[in-house]
C-alpha cells in the first residue's frame, strides 16, 4: 500500500513536471506545444549522455552528482525550447490556430526523428537505475536516489510557484496570459518573457526526462509521445493554464495509475489514464482548478 | 508650451496607418508641447485610438514620423517607448482583472529597475487615490468602473511618465466620477507631466485642455486653443450638442 503510494508519487511528480511546461506555454500564448514531450525525451538522452561520459559513478551516484546531471539536462532542453519558440512558433504568432498546431506536430516529429538519427533507433539502457540500497520507509522500499529525485521535483515545483507568484517575471507572465497588448503598454518585452517561459517549461521537462530514465531504466526516441499525451491529460485535469492545477493533475494521474494498475493489471495503465481524462472532462470540463473561459477580457 | 529651445513632448507628422485595406490614419499631424494638456476629439472610428496605439508602438505606421522629446520613435518597440517616458492608459482601461490592485500597480513600474523606487511611487499613488489603498489586495476585476479607471491612471503614474496618453478615460463613468478623473489629470499635469487626452466627451476635455485637435476620418480637421474651439460653431454642433 505505501509502496503504491510512493510509486504513484514518484511517477506523478515527473508527470507534474512535464505538465507544468505544457500548462505554462498554453497559459501564456494559448499554444498546445505538442513537441513538449519530446523535450522530455531530449532531457532523458542528455542525462544518458552525461552519465555515460561520466561513467563509473553509476551506482554510488550521490545527490550532488544527480543534481549536476539534471542541471545540465535542464540547460540543454531549456535552450532547445528557446530555439523551438524562436524558429517554429514566434513567426506564427497571430496565425490561425490550426497552422500553429500543425507546426507543433511537425516540431515533435523533427525532434523525434532527429534523435533517432543522432542516437539510433534502438532503446538505450540507462546507466543508473536508481537502484542503490533501498531503505525501508513506512513499509515502502525506496532508494536514496528515488527520494532525492522526488525532493528535487518538489524543490523545482516550489521554485516555479515562487517564480510565478512572487517575482517580476512571474507577474509579467501572468499579465501576458491575461492581456498581451496591455502588457505591452506596461513596457513588458513580451517576446523576451515568452522566451523565458519556454526555457523554464522545457527545462522542467528535461528534468523529468532524467528522472524517467532513471526510473524506467530504458529510453528511446519515441518515449516523449505517450508522456506528452499524459502530461496534457494532467494539465487538462488540473485546468489547462493553471500552474497549481498541473502539479495536482500530475500527482493525481501518477497515483491513479499506480493504484489502478495494481488492482487490474499493468496492461491497463494507459487505458486508465485516458479513460479518466474522458470521464473527468465530461464531469468537469474546466479541470480541478480551471477558470471559466469567459473570464478573459 | 514648448520652451525656448522649442522642446516638444510629442511631434506626430503625416502619420499613416493601414489595417489591411482600411486606411485609418491619413497624414495625421499634431504636437504636444512640454507641460501641455492636448485634447484629441473625434467621433467613433475617427482614428483616435489608432493614433495613440501607433505612438505607443503597438500599431505600426505605414508612413510619417513620430518624435518624442526630440527623438525619433517611429520604429521603436513598445517597451522602448515606455522606457522613453511615454505611458499609455488604454481604451477600456485594460486592468489585469485576475491580478490584485497592488500587482497591477507594480506592473506599472515594470521597467524601473530600482524596486524601492517603485514601492515609493506606489505609496504616492495610494496617498493620491486612497480608494486603491483600501482595495490593494482585491482582484482588479472586482473594482467598479471608476475605481478601475483610477487604477489604470495610477498604474501609469508608477512609471513616472513624461508624457501621459489617456484614451477616453471618461468612458462609461458617471458625471461626478468624470469630474474627479479630469481633476486628477489636471493635477498630474500641474506636477509637470505633458498630457495627450483622447476624448469623445468634448465638454469635459476642453475644460482642462490647453489646446485641442479634432480628428475626422484619420485626419485633423480643426485645431486651436481649447477655449476657442469650445466656442467654435462647428465643434459646438458636432461635439458639444445643442
Ligand atoms: N485592428 C483593426 N483592424 C481593422 N480595422 C481597424 C482596427 N482598429 C481600428 N480599425 C478601424 O480604423 C478606424 C479608426 O479606428 P480607431 O479605433 O482608431 O477609432 P477611434 O477614434 O478610437 O474610435 P472610438 O471612439 O470608437 O474608440 C476605424 O474605421 C476602425 O474600424
Ligand atoms: Mg478609440
UniProtKB/TrEMBL annotation, chain A:
<feature type="transmembrane region" description="Helical">
    <location>
        <begin position="96"/>
        <end position="115"/>
    </location>
</feature>
<feature type="transmembrane region" description="Helical">
    <location>
        <begin position="271"/>
        <end position="290"/>
    </location>
</feature>
<feature type="transmembrane region" description="Helical">
    <location>
        <begin position="221"/>
        <end position="240"/>
    </location>
</feature>
<keyword id="KW-0813">Transport</keyword>
<dbReference type="GO" id="GO:0005304">
    <property type="term" value="F:L-valine transmembrane transporter activity"/>
</dbReference>
<keyword id="KW-1003">Cell membrane</keyword>
<feature type="transmembrane region" description="Helical">
    <location>
        <begin position="247"/>
        <end position="265"/>
    </location>
</feature>
<keyword id="KW-0472">Membrane</keyword>
<feature type="transmembrane region" description="Helical">
    <location>
        <begin position="39"/>
        <end position="57"/>
    </location>
</feature>
<dbReference type="InterPro" id="IPR001851">
    <property type="entry name" value="ABC_transp_permease"/>
</dbReference>
<dbReference type="GO" id="GO:0015192">
    <property type="term" value="F:L-phenylalanine transmembrane transporter activity"/>
</dbReference>
<keyword id="KW-0812">Transmembrane</keyword>
<keyword id="KW-0997">Cell inner membrane</keyword>
<dbReference type="Pfam" id="PF02653">
    <property type="entry name" value="BPD_transp_2"/>
</dbReference>
<feature type="transmembrane region" description="Helical">
    <location>
        <begin position="193"/>
        <end position="215"/>
    </location>
</feature>
<dbReference type="GO" id="GO:0015190">
    <property type="term" value="F:L-leucine transmembrane transporter activity"/>
</dbReference>
<feature type="transmembrane region" description="Helical">
    <location>
        <begin position="12"/>
        <end position="32"/>
    </location>
</feature>
<keyword id="KW-1133">Transmembrane helix</keyword>
<dbReference type="GO" id="GO:0042941">
    <property type="term" value="P:D-alanine transmembrane transport"/>
</dbReference>
<dbReference type="InterPro" id="IPR052157">
    <property type="entry name" value="BCAA_transport_permease"/>
</dbReference>
<dbReference type="GO" id="GO:0005886">
    <property type="term" value="C:plasma membrane"/>
</dbReference>
<dbReference type="GO" id="GO:1903806">
    <property type="term" value="P:L-isoleucine import across plasma membrane"/>
</dbReference>
From TrEMBL, chain B:
<dbReference type="InterPro" id="IPR052156">
    <property type="entry name" value="BCAA_Transport_ATP-bd_LivF"/>
</dbReference>
<protein>
    <submittedName>
        <fullName>Amino acid/amide ABC transporter ATP-binding protein 2, HAAT family</fullName>
    </submittedName>
</protein>
<keyword id="KW-0067">ATP-binding</keyword>
<dbReference type="Pfam" id="PF00005">
    <property type="entry name" value="ABC_tran"/>
</dbReference>
<dbReference type="InterPro" id="IPR027417">
    <property type="entry name" value="P-loop_NTPase"/>
</dbReference>
<keyword id="KW-0547">Nucleotide-binding</keyword>
<dbReference type="GO" id="GO:0016887">
    <property type="term" value="F:ATP hydrolysis activity"/>
</dbReference>
<keyword id="KW-0029">Amino-acid transport</keyword>
<dbReference type="GO" id="GO:0015807">
    <property type="term" value="P:L-amino acid transport"/>
</dbReference>
<dbReference type="GO" id="GO:0015658">
    <property type="term" value="F:branched-chain amino acid transmembrane transporter activity"/>
</dbReference>
<keyword id="KW-0813">Transport</keyword>
<dbReference type="InterPro" id="IPR017871">
    <property type="entry name" value="ABC_transporter-like_CS"/>
</dbReference>
<dbReference type="InterPro" id="IPR003439">
    <property type="entry name" value="ABC_transporter-like_ATP-bd"/>
</dbReference>
<dbReference type="InterPro" id="IPR003593">
    <property type="entry name" value="AAA+_ATPase"/>
</dbReference>
<comment type="similarity">
    <text>Belongs to the ABC transporter superfamily.</text>
</comment>
<feature type="domain" description="ABC transporter">
    <location>
        <begin position="10"/>
        <end position="242"/>
    </location>
</feature>
<dbReference type="GO" id="GO:0005524">
    <property type="term" value="F:ATP binding"/>
</dbReference>
Amino acid at each position: 500500500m505505501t509502496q503504491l503510494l510512493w510509486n504513484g508519487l514518484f511517477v506523478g511528480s515527473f508527470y507534474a513536471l512535464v505538465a507544468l511546461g505544457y500548462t505554462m506555454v498554453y497559459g501564456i500564448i494559448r499554444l498546445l506545444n505538442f513537441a513538449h514531450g519530446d523535450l522530455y525525451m531530449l532531457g532523458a538522452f542528455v542525462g544518458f549522455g552525461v552519465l555515460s561520459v561520466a561513467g563509473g559513478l553509476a551506482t554510488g551516484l550521490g545527490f550532488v552528482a544527480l543534481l549536476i546531471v539534471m542541471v545540465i539536462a535542464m540547460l540543454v532542453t531549456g535552450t532547445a525550447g528557446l530555439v523551438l519558440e524562436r524558429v517554429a512558433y514566434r513567426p506564427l504568432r497571430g496565425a490561425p490556430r490550426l497552422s500553429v498546431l500543425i507546426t507543433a506536430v511537425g516540431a515533435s516529429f523533427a525532434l523525434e526523428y532527429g534523435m533517432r538519427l543522432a542516437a539510433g533507433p534502438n532503446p538505450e539502457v540507462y546507466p543508473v537505475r536508481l537502484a542503490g540500497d533501498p531503505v525501508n520507509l513506512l513499509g515502502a522500499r525506496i532508494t536514496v536516489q528515488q527520494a532525492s529525485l522526488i525532493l528535487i521535483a518538489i524543490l523545482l515545483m516550489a521554485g516555479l510557484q515562487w517564480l510565478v507568484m512572487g517575482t517580476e517575471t512571474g507577474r509579467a507572465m501572468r499579465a501576458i496570459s491575461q492581456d498581451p497588448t496591455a502588457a505591452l503598454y506596461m513596457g513588458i518585452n513580451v517576446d523576451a518573457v515568452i522566451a523565458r517561459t519556454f526555457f523554464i517549461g522545457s527545462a522542467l521537462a528535461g528534468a523529468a526526462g532524467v528522472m524517467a530514465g532513471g526510473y524506467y531504466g530504458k529510453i528511446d526516441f519515441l518515449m516523449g509521445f505517450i508522456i506528452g499525451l499524459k502530461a496534457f491529460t494532467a494539465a487538462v485535469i488540473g485546468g489547462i493554464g493553471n500552474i497549481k492545477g498541473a502539479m495536482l493533475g500530475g500527482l493525481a494521474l501518477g497515483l491513479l495509475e499506480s493504484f489502478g494498475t495494481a488492482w487490474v493489471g499493468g496492461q491497463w495503465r494507459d487505458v486508465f489514464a485516458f479513460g479518466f481524462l474522458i470521464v473527468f472532462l465530461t464531469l468537469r470540463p474546466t479541470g480541478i482548478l480551471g477558470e471559466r473561459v469567459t473570464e478573459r477580457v | 508650451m514648448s520652451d525656448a529651445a522649442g522642446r516638444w513632448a510629442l511631434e506626430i507628422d503625416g502619420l499613416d496607418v493601414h489595417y489591411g485595406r482600411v486606411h485609418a490614419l491619413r497624414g495625421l499631424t499634431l504636437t504636444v508641447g512640454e507641460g501641455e494638456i492636448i485634447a484629441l476629439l473625434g467621433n467613433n472610428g475617427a482614428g483616435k485610438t489608432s493614433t495613440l496605439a501607433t505612438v505607443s508602438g503597438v500599431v505600426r505606421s505605414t508612413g510619417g514620423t513620430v518624435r518624442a522629446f526630440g527623438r525619433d520613435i517611429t520604429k521603436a518597440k513598445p517597451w522602448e517607448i515606455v522606457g522613453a517616458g511615454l505611458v499609455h492608459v488604454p481604451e477600456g482601461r485594460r486592468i489585469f482583472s485576475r491580478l490584485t490592485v497592488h500587482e497591477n500597480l507594480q506592473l506599472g513600474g515594470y521597467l524601473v529597475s530600482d524596486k524601492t523606487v517603485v514601492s515609493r511611487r506606489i505609496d504616492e499613488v495610494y496617498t493620491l487615490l486612497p480608494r486603491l489603498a483600501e482595495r490593494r489586495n482585491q482582484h482588479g476585476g472586482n473594482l467598479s468602473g471608476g475605481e478601475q479607471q483610477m487604477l489604470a491612471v495610477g498604474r501609469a503614474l508608477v512609471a513616472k511618465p513624461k508624457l501621459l496618453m489617456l484614451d477616453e478615460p471618461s468612458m462609461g463613468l458617471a458625471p461626478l466620477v468624470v469630474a474627479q478623473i479630469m481633476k486628477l489629470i489636471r493635477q498630474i499635469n500641474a506636477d509637470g507631466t505633458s498630457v495627450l487626452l483622447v476624448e469623445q466627451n468634448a465638454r469635459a476635455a476642453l475644460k482642462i485642455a490647453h489646446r485641442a485637435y479634432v480628428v475626422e476620418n484619420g485626419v485633423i480637421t480643426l485645431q486651436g486653443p481649447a477655449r476657442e474651439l469650445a466656442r467654435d460653431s462647428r465643434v459646438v454642433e458636432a461635439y458639444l450638442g445643442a
